[in-house]
Amino acid sequence: RNKAINIHMGLSPFYRGTDCNFWALMDNNFMHVGSTIHYLSDGLDNGDIIYHALPKYFENPFLFTMSSVKSAIDSLVLKINDKSIVNKKGTKQDKKLEIKNSKISSFTDHNIQKFYQKKIIIKKFNYDKKLLVDPYFLM
C-alpha cells in the first residue's frame, strides 16, 4: 500500500521462497538465477514486479549467484539516484510460471551435499526476455 520494495534473491515468479538461486542451479535452470525487485505484498515474494536484475555470466556458481546480488544493489542505486523507480507501476506475477516455492526446511545438509556432488558448471545460455520485467543486466 505504501510502495515498500523488496529485493528477492531469485527470479519471481519462477522461484519463490528461500534459497531460490540455489534451487535454480540445482535444477540446472541457469536462466532463472537473478534477483527480483518487487513491491511488498501480503503473500511471500508475490508482489508486483518492478524489474528483474540479472547477473554477469560466470561458469562458477558462487560467482554467478553473487553477481546477481551485485546486480540488484547496483541497479537499485542507479534507479533511486535517477528517480526512475519512483512511482513505477509494477507488473503482476503470473503464478502459472512458478517452478518452485521453497521453504527453509528444504535447505538441508543432504541437499547441500547433492549440490556439491553435481559439480555445477554454468553453461552459456540466453534469458527469455519475454518472461522478464524491465531486465537490468550487470555488465
Helices and strands, with pairings:
Layout: E1 5-8, E2 15-17, H1 20-26, E3 35-39, E4 49-54, H2 61-81, E5 100-102, H3 109-118, E6 136-137
Parallel strand pairs: 2-5, 4-6
Antiparallel strand pairs: 1-3, 3-4
Quick recap of the structure?
This protein is α/β, with parallel strands linked by helices and 139 residues long. The chain is 27% helix and 17% strand.
Beta strand count: 6
Summed over residues and divided by their number, the pLDDT gives a mean of 92
Number of helices: 3
Main sheet specs: 4 strands, mixed
What is the strand arrangement across the widest sheet?
A: 1-3-4-6
| Fraction of residues in H or I helices | 25-40%
Model description:
- The chain has 139 residues and is α/β, with parallel strands linked by helices.
- It contains three helices and six strands; from the N terminus they run E-E-H-E-E-H-E-H-E.
- The strands form two sheets. A four-stranded mixed β-sheet has the order 1-3-4-6.
- The longest helix is centred in the middle third of the chain and has 21 residues, at 61-81.
- 32% of the residues are buried.
- The model has no long low-confidence stretch (mean pLDDT 92).
